[in-house]
Amino acid sequence: MDPTHIPFEPKQISKDLSQTLYNVTLNIAKVNITLNFIESILCNVVIICALLILLLIYWNIKMWLTHKNKEDDFIQRKIDERMFDVQQRQKPSSQNGIAV
């Protein structure tokens, strides 16, 4: 083989390398776009989950307070009934005392 003979074309190699570099850059850009899209979706999912958790906490507190108010109303109603019963029992005895 002749030492001055080059078995490849430098222009062709340069063209192939340029095309390969372009393809790699294009693939990296596609991956970057995909990752950004996935990141935005995950971010939205995290925000939605946080809002749902806050909503559940609010709902639990509201239900607990509603139940507590109903329980307090029930207790107050029972106290009022007992006081009414005591007053009703005291009225006849005081009337009997006046009549005697």
Description:
The protein has 100 residues and is mainly α. Helices cover 90% and strands 0% of the residues. It is built from one helix and no strands. The chain has one helix spanning 10-99. It is rod-shaped and about 135 Å long. The chain crosses the membrane at residues 37-61. Keywords: Membrane, Transmembrane, Transmembrane helix.
Summed up, the helix count is 1
Determine the structural class based on helices, strands and strand pairing.
mainly alpha
Using only C-alpha atoms, the radius of gyration works out to 43 Å
The fraction of residues in strands falls at under 5%
Distance between the termini: 148 Å
**What's the quaternary structure here?**
single chain
Sheet with the most strands? none
Estimated helix fraction: over 70%
Low-confidence parts: none
Could you tell me the number of beta strands?
0
Itemize the secondary structure elements and their pairings:
Blueprint: H1 10-99
Provide a concise account of the structure shown.
Keywords: Membrane, Transmembrane, Transmembrane helix. 90% of the residues lie in helices and 0% in strands.
Keywords:
1 helix, 100 residues, mainly alpha, single chain, 90% helix, rod-shaped
